């Protein structure tokens, strides 16, 4: 049990440091803002999570950006400019970057990545920075994998080859035929962009996304200035995990960001900035049916057709769904000490983004999103597994 004095400290909103958050915090507390604030406090009390930050987007503009609790075991406050791990939210931002390249004619979503490369993929061997491409020798299906298949998680790869019993990368099903979450697939498209198009993905995402939206404290690689205000994480057993200083650009999940920065991206994306209307609609719309009961394990058996959720599909880098408010999309991010979610409904260009440096907060996400957006139809049981509401 958390002692009352400690609980009071954990629930106290941290000092708001960014102009964006200052505006939201300084505004008179409307009934809506008070409801969000109360929902967050309840979530922290129920889960025991040590830190959480939330941003609310209305009509494509951040209207509420606030952080709560602690950023490390020393109980330094988590504020809106604290560096937090973006985890797999990176994949959504990567997909947004890819769609800019599609708009410019540099990438064709349905042209095999093999055609982008100077030599056959297996000849590159196993590369620590990207993937175990040498393991694919003898299986010609690698030649058919396209950017669309990568972004819909239908390459046929496991999440990562190190999760395979023998640690070898393999293709489990005909590429493009079904959804199976794969970070290694994202790394294949990154490899195609860097080795084929000769573009530096880190620099491209910096220019095309982070600079565009004024995300001055966001990067795909560790920066020394991050150390001044950095979030460590809490695991399910309550132990602290130090923040990983990521030294490589990885489209699958190396982004560090802040709640203030990701709010800027969420608002810009909701407004449709940076990509054409066609590219945006393609990204968030249904591209591939979801055929499993849950997202993980990534190679779970498919359900019989009659048992599948017809309102749930893979978009490009996001999950597309249809609910009581119409079209929506989501993306999650998770590791042993991180829990993030990014949920939007197209009606009203409304979103909620939650970053937590405590994985225990994840169980409260359905209630928090509902408190902000109402009943959206987010497929929580598929996203988080049985028992999620």
Describe the structure.
The chain is an alpha+beta fold and 389 residues long. Mean pLDDT is 92; it is low at 1-29. The longest helix is centred in the N-terminal third of the chain and has 17 residues, at 31-47. An eight-stranded antiparallel sheet has the order 2-1-12-11-10-9-8-7, sandwiched between helices. A two-stranded antiparallel sheet has the order 3-6. A two-stranded antiparallel ribbon has the order 4-5. It is built from eleven helices and twelve strands. The radius of gyration is 20 Å and the shape is globular.
> Which strands sit side by side, in order, in the main sheet?
2-1-12-11-10-9-8-7
Major sheet description: 8 strands, antiparallel
Global mean pLDDT: 92
Q: What is the 3D shape?
A: globular
Number of strands: 12
Report the helical percentage.
25-40%
Low-confidence stretches: 1-29
Tally of helical runs: 11
Which class best fits the helix and strand makeup? Answer: alpha+beta
Cα gyration radius (Å): 20 Å
Distance between the termini: 25 Å
- How much beta, percentage-wise? 15-25%
| Secondary-structure element order, N to C | HHHEEEHHHHEEEHHEEEEEEHH
């Amino acid at each position: 049990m958390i002692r009352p004095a400690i609980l009071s400290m954990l629930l106290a909103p941290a000092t708001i440091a960014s102009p964006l958050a200052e505006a939201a915090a300084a505004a008179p507390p409307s009934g809506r803002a008070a409801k969000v604030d109360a929902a967050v406090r309840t979530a922290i009390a129920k889960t025991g999570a040590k830190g959480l930050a939330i941003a609310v987007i209305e009509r494509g503009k951040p209207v509420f950006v606030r952080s709560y609790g602690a950023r490390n075991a020393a109980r330094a406050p988590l504020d809106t400019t604290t560096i937090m791990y973006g985890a797999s939210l990176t994949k959504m931002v990567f997909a947004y970057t890819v769609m800019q390249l599609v708009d410019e004619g540099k990438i064709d979503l349905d042209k095999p990545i093999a055609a982008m490369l100077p030599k056959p993929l297996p000849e590159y061997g196993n590369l620590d920075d990207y993937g175990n491409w040498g393991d694919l020798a003898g299986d010609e299906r690698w030649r058919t994998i396209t950017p669309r298949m990568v972004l819909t998680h239908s390459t046929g790869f496991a999440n990562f080859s190190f999760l395979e019993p023998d640690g070898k990368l393999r293709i489990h099903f005909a590429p493009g035929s079904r959804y199976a979450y794969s970070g290694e697939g994202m790394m294949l498209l990154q490899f195609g962009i860097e080795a084929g198009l000769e573009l530096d993905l880190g620099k491209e995402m910096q220019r095309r996304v982070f600079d565009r939206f004024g995300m001055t404290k966001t990067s795909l690689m560790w920066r020394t200035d991050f150390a001044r205000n950095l979030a460590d994480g809490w695991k399910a057993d309550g132990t602290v995990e130090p923040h990983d200083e990521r030294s490589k650009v990885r489209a699958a999940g190396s982004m560090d960001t802040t709640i203030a920065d990701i709010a800027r991206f969420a608002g810009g994306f909701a407004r449709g900035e940076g990509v054409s209307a066609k590219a945006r609609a393609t990204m968030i719309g249904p591209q591939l049916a979801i055929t499993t009961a849950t997202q993980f394990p990534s190679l779970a058996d498919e359900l019989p057709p009659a048992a599948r959720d017809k309102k749930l599909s893979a978009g490009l880098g996001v999950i597309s769904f249809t609910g009581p408010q119409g079209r929506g999309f989501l993306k999650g991010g998770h590791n042993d000490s991180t829990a993030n979610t990014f949920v939007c409904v197209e009606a009203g260009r409304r979103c909620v983004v939650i970053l937590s440096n405590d994985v225990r907060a994840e169980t409260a996400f359905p209630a928090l999103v509902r408190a902000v957006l109402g009943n959206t139809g987010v497929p929580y049981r598929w996203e988080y597994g049985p028992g999620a509401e």
